[in-house]
Design goal:
The complex is a heterodimer of chains A (116) and B (114). Chain A has no helices and 11 strands. Chain A has 116 residues and is an all-beta fold. Chain B has no helices and 11 strands. With 114 residues, chain B is mainly beta. In chain B, strands 2, 4, 5, 9, 10 and 11 form a 6-stranded mixed sheet that branches. In chain B, strands 1-3-8-7-6 form a 5-stranded antiparallel sheet, with no helix packed on it. The chains are: A mainly beta (116), B mainly beta (114). The interface between A and B is medium-sized, with 24 and 28 residues.
């Protein structure tokens, strides 16, 4: 049963600390998305990669957030320094081209981040 | 900018009744419309999708309709069951910088009362 995995599932940290979230996309998927979910803003796209190259990170605060794909099986999202307003659930999703029209995205279970 | 509006925000139905969730989108370049179900503590799960060259699609108790002219699409769940209780998100995707960009609706919290 192929699925997207994310670690850690929960993270509590103090303001100013670095946070690293990891994602393993479904094997064979060439596109990886990072989303943030909050009650106020809903699901927001932060960044996405295709074939490990960043395609769009316009939704990500550049001064503190960074996203990378060191290899095809690992995507990372880092926040440095973290702030209380970063508290949210962060989802990774992966997908593949679907008939050349658009992507089906498969979400991981999320990382619930709390910054105190 | 691009926007997806979803209604209602909360929906309560009796078990066995039908539930309908409606979405509108603003970007005419959108060509793919997925629906996701999110249960508590889990990630959104794709349940059905429709492409812009199709008007309706059905999968057992769920169906989706698309009106491209009006930029409306809807999710229909028939014979609802308590396990259908969850938050449902609609989304609209369009090609973007070599990939695709997806905008999500705000979600509908569905309660199915036994």
């Amino acid at each position: 049963d192929a699925r997207v995995t994310q670690t850690p599932r929960h993270k509590v940290t103090e303001m100013g600390q670095e946070v690293t979230m990891r994602c393993q996309p479904i094997l064979g998927h060439n596109t990886v998305f990072w989303y943030r979910q909050t009650m106020m803003q809903g699901l927001e796209l932060l960044a996405y990669f295709r074939n490990r190259a960043p395609l769009d990170d316009s939704g990500m605060p550049k001064d503190r957030f960074s996203a990378e794909m060191p290899d095809a099986t690992l995507a990372t999202l880092k926040i440095q320094p973290s702030e209380p307003r970063d508290s949210a659930v962060y989802f990774c999703a992966s997908g593949s081209p679907s008939g050349g029209l658009s992507y089906e995205q498969y979400f991981g279970p999320g990382t619930r981040l709390t910054v105190t | 900018g691009e926007n997806v509006e979803q209604h209602p925000s909360t929906l309560s139905v009796q078990e066995g009744d039908s539930a309908v969730i409606k979405c509108t989108y603003s970007d005419s370049a959108s060509n793919y419309f997925p629906w996701y179900k999110q249960e508590l503590g889990k990630g959104p799960q794709l349940i059905i999708d429709i492409r812009s060259n199709v008007g309706e699609k059905k999968d057992q108790r769920i169906a989706v309709t698309l009106n491209k002219t009006a930029k409306h699409f809807s999710l229909h769940i028939t014979e609802t069951q308590p396990e259908d209780s969850a938050v449902y998100f609609c989304a609209a995707s369009r090609p973007n910088t070599g990939g695709f960009k997806t905008i999500f609706g705000a979600g509908t919290r569905l309660f199915v009362k036994a």
